[in-house]
Amino acid sequence: MVSEPRVEAGRAAGGPLVEDSMPRRAVLFVTLVISAGVAALGTSLCHWESHDLLKFICYLVIAILGSTMKVKLPGMDSTMSVHFLFVLLSVLELSLSETMVIGCTAALSQCLWKQKPELVKVAFNVLGLTSLAIYTTYSVYHQASGLLRNSTPLLLVAAACTCFISNTAPLALVIALAERRPLRGIWRETYFWSFPYYLAGAAVVGLISFCNRYIGWQSALLVLPIMYWIYRSYHLYLGRLQDEKRRVEIEEMHVRAEKRHVEEVCALHLRTIEGLALAIDAKDHTTHAHLHRVRTYAVEVARDMGLSDSELDALRAAALLHDIGKLAVPDHIINKPGRLTPEEFEKMKIHPVVGAEILEKVAFPYPVAPIVRAHHERWNGKGYPDGLKGEEIPVGARILAAVDCLDALASDRQYRKALPLEEAMGAVAAESGKSFDPQVIKVLQRRYLELEEMACQGMEEKVKAQLSYQQIIERGERPGAGFAMDGGHRNQTDFLSSIASARQEAHTLFELSQDIGNSLSLDETLSLVAMRLRKLVPYDSFVAFIKKGDLLLPEFVTGDHFRLLSALKIPVGTGLCGWVAQNARPIVNGNPAVETGFVHDPLDSREPKSALVVPLEGVTGLVGVMALYQATADAFTSDHLRILQVVTSRVALFVENALKFREAETSATIDYLTGIANARALSLHLEQELARCNRESGTMAVMVCDLDGFKQINDCYGHLAGDKVLKQFAAAVTSLCREYDYTARMGGDEFVIVAPNMSPEAVSERAVLFSDMAKQAGVEVCGAGFLSLSLGAAFYPKDGLDAEQLLAEADRAMYAAKQRHYELTGSRGRNGFVELATVS
Known about the structure:
- By secondary structure, this protein is of the alpha+beta class.
- The protein has 30 helices and 14 strands.
């Protein structure tokens, strides 16, 4: 059996030949080989000769059968076939044309047997390599007979070497050109191993040729069974070799996997503990080395007390993870610099429960969760969450409670400085038999200095944890009072939901802080507050009341019963909101029906039945209250109150600033004396009206009027009388104007009226009325009838296209009317005169 790499030496004939990115020089070489092979095949077939046709046909059939007996070599893309024997035998006993037909046909059969190769691959293998190899081998064998003195063995060796080089060298060269690699290395690594098979094949051919001389060429047919036996044996051998190799690889893979699994299992709990400890450390910015120190103290105290290895492992894990439940406590509570409110303390008390529930999911081989759950229990039974006492508390939790307290007292906190270690130990010892196990305190008192030194030697800086939860813990003492009424509602959820809730609370509060800092619009910001707050505190209706004098007026209302709540006007001191405003204390789950102005509808199932009301206290005092309503009784919890108090502490300052801004903005556009618009507001309004007229192709009249004789009132009766005249005239003009007309005081005794879509005739009629009002104001205030009015008007778009042109034209017309009146009467101030501006 010999290698036949030219047929499926995949990297050459089956690989690079079909690559789109093959270099041009490789393509040129392949083309050259195919061309030379076709020339050799054509030359041979043109000189066809056959001395024994039957012998030729038999050799051809055997060669084709041998070409189908191929095996794929392990680790390579090449195949091995046995038809090479009859190609070389044909070189010895047949003509060149017969040998060429046998070799090319067998090569074609091997290319097409049980596969669909590319056309260029077939052409290169059959027409190129095979044709050239046979032509060269045949020429060497027959031309070198004289040189080698007709020595058949030497001629066979020469023919085998020529065939080997002719087959493998072009393939190696194609690979070298395509992959840009050294030719010698490719030829040696890929094909040189098959050279012994060519030599062995030459020996077999020599033996068959010798038998043919004495027995006849028919003896070659007996080789076919031998060929099949060799092919089959080698095929089975290679199959077993592949199976054995695969089995060894699978076993090695299983061994590696088992070893890796054992290593991972051995490190599982350590990684879990360290990972969870990092989650704790990532949030609390006040106790950097707390976990490490507590672990060192707790484990050494436990060893001193003779705890088992399993109990030591559990305590070691619990010491690192005892604060993981703080993931359920919002950051602003954990890092609060002052004393916690009752609602905040309720939130803090849930962290042992949350921590235990988290650790139960880890399935430690030792009892970690019970220690974490009980590490805030007290020896006298006054701890939380379960009120355990004495020996009921797990020994690990008793150790952890004392050690945790000692380290907390000896560490800096936002709300106090660290105590000296001796004082901290004294404070802990004073709780022996009350809060802490006396045996644990005894060990701590004896060894605390030694343990402190051990903790400092292996100190690693950490950063700590926090979270939030919806459950209320009944046990445990609460701090000083911080709210008026507690609805007592309990809302329990699993720890994963509580963690998500805490994250949402922190995120929502952050968004809210961003929102209220980006606008001074009270309505816009209260709308954002209502929207953000709904994610944290469910409600049906939201109302923000603003205190104006002794009343609470709804500034912003959203949700159900908009009309009912918008109509409320609540006196301070009455109803829910009035009581909150008067006492500056919140109310949880109050009855909205007691509000002044609340109309009860027995048929309305969605009528508000519970209210959560919180005061809005600014720097200068109470600015209003915020009220949330729901249609179910006792719908709000003290946790909802806590969230709302956090929100209102930020919102109250904004509301106070926004009200001041609104007041300043209003005063900037209102004339302080008459209460109507000033010149600045007039300018803005004119621009808006001009834009409207331009859009709607409308018209507009601008009237400028001046009080004639007003200087005499100031001179004769004083400025207070003059101010009173201006106020009365402004009020009279405003009452006479249509609701969509605009009245403004330009300054002094000059007024402007903007009247959309008013005709010149209507302006003239209105001017007479204005003049009568001016005269009446003078009579009522001063008892003198010498006050009159001059009025000029301009019209858009006839007299101007912008505010400046219109005011200028109306002013010119007003002075023209004043001058004309003076010329006619010889005096100013007797009767009003109207002049309409015209375009010259």
